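[Automated response] Your request has been received and processed.

Submitted sequence:
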Amino acid sequence: EVNEFLERDLKPEGLRRSVVIVATSDQPPLVRIRGAFLATAIAEYFRDCGRHVLLMMDSLTRFAHGQREVGLAIGEPPTTKGYTPSVFTLLPKLLERAGTGSGEGTITGLYTVLVEGDEMSDPIADAVRSILDGHIVLSREMAAQNHFPAIDVLQSTSRVMRDIATPQHYAAARAVTESVAIYRRSEDLINLGAYKPGANGKLDRVVNLIGPITDYLRQDVDEKVGLGESVAALAKLAEALQ
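Generated structure:
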């Protein structure tokens, strides 16, 4: 898995601009814990040099598992799903180090969290959501439908979008997200044939445009779309939904 990431995704060009810290799940728990903190410390160094750093960590769940093993070994009491109190003490100490520093540099952190059976009430997922500025939820059901990236836009959110997006972009995103929610609520009725056009004008527009909306939310791995082009397509969908 590590070699695949290095050779297929980063490639030589990406490696020249990257620092890779590897601590696989079969490593001792202290190695996994120290690997996460080492990667963050390196990111902080480049941030303090005025660089804009992208820190990607896969995964916080394995980091938490490592601390759970350490906690249980030293006699900490297990709590929800066996996680020890020190796990929830250590998570903010790691995650709060991302972001801006005293200078011009920044760290943008992307952390993955593995949940059992799409169970969003997982204690680690809950703890991480309370700390970070947003989350992107990947759906197994959407992946099974060959919808990639399998992002569930209704469960995904950003606390900072209003601050970093233009008012037009923000309004268009809300309109399209609301339309997806309307369709999901009525999807069973539509599939059963109980939906009758003309009874609800807003639902009619959503049903007519659900195909283009779904196409917009899909993107092949090798497909490249610029931000301006993406926002323009989003605005066009939002206008059609009015």
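Summary generated for your ticket: The first helix runs from residue 2 to 15. The mean pLDDT is 94.
If you did not submit this request, please reply to this message.
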